[in-house]
Batch of 4 targets.
Target 1
Amino acid sequence: MFKLRADWVHIDVMDGHFVPNLTMGPPIISSLRKAVPRGQKDGQTTHFFDCHMMVANPEQWVPEVAKAGGDQYTFHYEATKDPVKLVKLIKSHGLKAACAIKPGTSVEVLYPLADKLDMALVMTVEPGFGGQKFMADMMPKVEALRAKFPNLDIQVDGGLGKETIGVAADAGANVIVAGSSVFGAKDPGEVIRYLRDTVENAQKKAKAKPKPNL
């Protein structure tokens, strides 16, 4: 994917508790990092690991993900009692900090956190399984975040592809998670280019500042 000009690899970590599915954990992240090392000596990676932690106790895994080679730690607001303390913990381990909200969670919970975050993630499906249908009714959340925080990276995750990228980009999302639409395509590189071009064009219209990442 990096050779096809994907900016990040989005790694879904699920514990079978916060969501019913069970997927990879820190040992797999560590193995991936050995196979795909950071690209520059100054530590500014060109092979960015965006770790989406769909886990019931996100505080527990921060040291492990940092040690394994993660770059960004995205926790779910619904999974922690003290998100501010968790953000501080994440950053103390040298990771970027991001917070995700499920479809049923109000976007307003992110407002007090936004100036402390590197990114906010608005889920556009229920977390836990791939291949779900994009929930367009989540776009007002993205629009509200972009209006209040014009320089914040805003990610959308779930059901993103050629048919749905336009509405997400127009709402203000600049970080796009695409799984099935890329990996299931005959030409994944062409899909990545299409998604990036759509976001860049939307940003030009809105004169937005955050860089698109896919």
Target 2
Amino acid sequence: MDQFTFGSVLTACGSLLALGEGKQIHAYVIKIDNKDNVFVGSALVDMYSKCKSIKSGETVFKRMTQKNVVSWTAMLVGYGQNGFSEEAVKIFFEMQGNGFEPDDFTLGSVISS
């Protein structure tokens, strides 16, 4: 399995609210030492957020060794979708403080939070 397969499977888990299956995929990601892949990490944050397990998503996000606009946005959207508006705004400013420029989707997400 590569980063694209993991991304697709984790997206499906999030859409189906299949937290148990998503956790199994996460365990497999750790087992094969693919946990430092920014695309896989972003997909994990998104899956946990959609499954209403925002603390798990936050843990994955904080442990990511590399982040990009997608990973920052996944965390921001996760906070917003789970009713944590203040955290969404905080992470938006933290994102900018770390040198990442928000794209149109990120800006729309923070405004709707």
Target 3
Amino acid sequence: MAGVLSLLRRLYLSAYNWIVFAGWFQVLFLTLKTLKESGYEHVYSTVEKPLLLAQSAAFLEILHGIIGLVRSPITATLPQIGSRLYVVWGILYSFPEVQKHPLISSLVISWSITEIVRYSFFGTKEAFGSAPYWLLWLRYSTFLVLYPTGISSEIGMIYNALPFMKESGMYSVRMPNKWNFSFDYFYMAIVVLAIYVPGIPHLYGYMLGQRKKALMKTKKE
């Protein structure tokens, strides 16, 4: 029975990783094609649907960690996925005024390359039991450049959306109301930006530790 469950787990995770890999590959292809043919102003409108689908699929990774399907700690997975879901749905999708900003291109390219490498690595590992060294090296090395470009683009997009949040009052709840409750989406965004300050070195340090552990383990083997 345990063997059957293990096989089903591997089949599911392999299919999940390769399907999401295909989604991010499409996002990257469309981004580069649009940049070449139309310019950065049209990137978001071109990749919106596959981007929302590919990034939203990552929510399942939180569930994978909760139920023990994977060994990734929730403390590392939740902030990364949560911040990206906030950016794609709470910023890019919600505020059309920022959808033609040049930072969208650097954001999407950084995310896409990172995820193409990550999902292909885990997809190969689940399907064949291991991944080639070059793919493992890419998995634990590309973030050295792509994490700073991606995270700075995320911060830039949130910052650029602030005036439109304040002006529109979108997602804010004003008093008085029957719940006797108020919420200001603009100030929440400022709090999110503040969380990036301690969050960036923490996650970057975590990934550096994971890189060292993974590459040292490979050398010993």
Target 4
Amino acid sequence: MEQRDTIKREGRLTPVLALATLIAAFGSSFQYGYNVAVINSPAKLMKAFYNETYYDRISEYISEFSLTLLWSVSVSMFPFGGFLGSLMVGPLVNKLGRKGTLLFNNIFSIVPAILMGCSEVARSFEMIIVSRLLVGICAGLSSNVVPMYLGELAPKNLRGALGVVPQLFITVGILAAQILGLQSLLANEEGWPILLGVTGVPAALQLLLLPFFPESPRYLLIQKKDEAAAKNALRRLRGWDDVDAETEEIREEDKAEKAAGFISVLKLLRMRSLRWQLISIVVLMGGQQLSGVNAIYYYADQIYLSAGVRAQDVQYVTVGTGAVNVLMTVCAVFVVELLGRRVLLLLGFSICGTACCVLTAALALQDAVSWMPYVSIACIISYVIGHALGPSPIPALLITEIFLQSSRPSAYMVGGSVHWLSNFTVGLIFPFIQVGLGAYSFIIFAVICLLTTIYTFLVVPETKAKTFIEISQIFSKMNKVSEVHPEKEELKDFPPSTAGL
């Protein structure tokens, strides 16, 4: 009876936990998705603004090459800012806490929102370029800190579902940018500065509301050594007074890793006890971005046009694709605890790889076979479904689960850096690959999907419904930690109650 009561307690999504999740994800992850997509719709209008501003200054227009270069810089500043934001994760979350970092991060959203909103009035395209860098830093921080914060707030049986919520809000942000970016709404000469400035609204709401919610109990107990504050946070999050068992679990994690102290990125790269965790995160984060998700969106408009969709209607089909992405991420929230992380990764990468192979054949044959463009559309939708199920939401969730408290911030710095550098690389190189290989460029993405699937099948364990200590013990066997010489390692000194596995 007591065990049944514990299971019932563990499964509870309290109002405080639900609202903290929604506010953190809407205020941070939503902006990431919004800023990924917002610049696509008003691209022609913004290029015209760049040209006119330049003409107003020196009475001549920008050359075609210089305009393309300026636009490329405007677009690529976002992933570059994301990379810089990822490098800031470790120092900030250790100094300010998880919640504190999210609140501080709103500076990198509200300031650029004002700058972009005023850029046309100020006749300055430089304000847009600087703002893209700043919102990139915001996205780099939020894409790492939100999953970390929610993973540490959630009980183990809800950790997967809440860990997917940030990705859900990223897709909602993309969809919101696509809808507001319709020509009839804000993608017009009067509206585009407002379209860019909207990103400040969720940041302002988060700044107002998040201070009323708890900091991560793990951060409070392990790093701040404030047991009273940690217990108070747990009571508010769980909705009951008896939190001694969970406090003890956090304390065991603290004991298990005390020998290591704070683990910097350099120390993380050298530690044998974390080798397979680190390799797994690099492979999954790299596979997530290098599997062609941005290239699929890049190709989508062209495929819709070749299938007979009218040019003025392509924007509505794009919104439809965004809606499918949101719908499938909602499904991932509900099935991640049912099917597990490993199954969703294997399923997602397999669907993406198959879609890339079929899309290659369909694009190569679309001029010869009349119905091939419709196969191409089916491939795009299948790819979006596959990526939304596993490759998009699961890797960031896994970083929270497979690293303990002392190494988690540095692990997020590594994972985030791989994510943003891969994103930047695809954006930079794909147009050249497309010119050189045409339709066959998707074969490269299919191979990356296949390799990531094989790695996941052979190496990545299931983490569903396990404590952080239990997950770390699975990896300690893989890393053969017991054979490591007496240097300080993260999992060397397990407390007796958890060591005998």
